[in-house]
Amino acid sequence: MTQRPTVETDTDKLRRRNRELSILNTIAEALSREVDLDQSLRTALAQVAELFGLHTGWVFLLHDETNDSYLAAVQDLPPALADDPDSMEDGCTCLESYRRGGLDNRDRVHVITCSRLQGLIAGTDGLRYHASIPLYAQNKKLGVLNVASAETHWWELSADDLRLLHTVGDLLSIAIERTRLFAKSTRLGAVQERNRLAREIHDTLAQGLTAIALKLETTDALLDAGTDLERIQQTVKQALNLTRANLEEARRSVLDLRAAPLEGRNLVEALTILTQDCEKKTGLAIRFKATGGNRPLSIRLETGLYRVAQEALNNVIQHAQAQTAAVELITTPDQVRLIIEDDGQGFEPVEVPPDRYGLVGLNERTRLLGGTLRLESSPGTGTRVEVTVPAR
After folding, report:
1. Contacts of 288 (CB under 8 A, 6+ apart)
2. Alpha-carbon distance 296 to 286, whole Å?
3. Whether this model's pTM surpasses 0.85
4. Closest residue by Cα to residue 76 from 138, 122, 124
5. What whole-number distance in Å separates Cα of residue 223 and Cα of residue 128?
6. Is 141 exposed, middle or buried (0-12, 13-18, 19+ CB in 10 A)?
7. What is the C-alpha separation between 311 and 241, in angstroms, rounded?
8. DSSP 3-state assignment of 264?
9. Is the dihedral angle over the CA atoms 371, 37, 330, 358 positive or is it negative?
10. Residues of the chain whose pLDDT is less than 50?
11. C-alpha–C-alpha distance, residues 157 and 52, integer Å
């Protein structure tokens, strides 16, 4: 796409430079206030859309560890994309070009036809083109910033405006790397805190076990002394009560501090193993699908959603008498949806007995994650559980 030639006076150049500096200053100030990656990306998209008069935008990032791409942030996606998360899941022209280094030339105007919108007619808001800005931290690929608008709008943006978008990309790259480093330091602090708590728990359990040992030694001494049976029984009961209390404390501490199935795995990997294990142990055919699964989630969110899936599948196995089940995880920049369905005997939700603690647990876990639970079932039609939680 070529730019229409114009004659620029010194006054025009000065105004343009002042405008560029104002835009960069506004975006830099907004990004400097953020230490959360999601918020940094949303801030950058909102500022770019407002300052350049663009309609929409989105950011694809490469996972810091696996290098897989994922949709990290969006700004006013058209309905054709917003209502179909799968449409933003697969690779596209700009990502493929970026991985090959085809977006690196700043003197080239990277306004291209969007391969995601090209084959669509309805629900695109007239969008067909976007500018693709590569994001780098030194030589490390971070992702791509895409900003889209109607075809005629790109004629109004000069080559300098498009190069200015590259500078905005540099600011965003700095913010991304800074927030990732901050997150790493936070995780390191969390590991250190967990180790500290583990030592405290160890000390607590050690004291409890010492008390139990003393009780048992007392019992042994009472037996040797021929003490009456009632007193010996009382000491044994005290030792049993201490044992149960310490065992419960150990279980609670382990659940709070460590989610073993997620150690060294992300949520998609853990759910894959969970569904496969359930199939092997029960013969229940389970289909698992993940959309947007490369997007990183907090440890708290991943652990909570894993426990929800685990509890829901346990309910299917114990009560549904189902032949097949399906687990689907849909992750977008704004929310995460976990859906568990089965073709079992179903039930009437309003007639669930109060001793069905599995459903109570699902509700409680969802509430703690700040989300909502939707339960659909009726006799003979199977059951569908849908949990929706904020991604941030």
Report:
1. 271, 272, 275, 326, 327, 328, 329
2. 24
3. no
4. 124
5. 88
6. middle
7. 29
8. coil
9. negative
10. 1-3, 107, 109, 258-259
11. 8
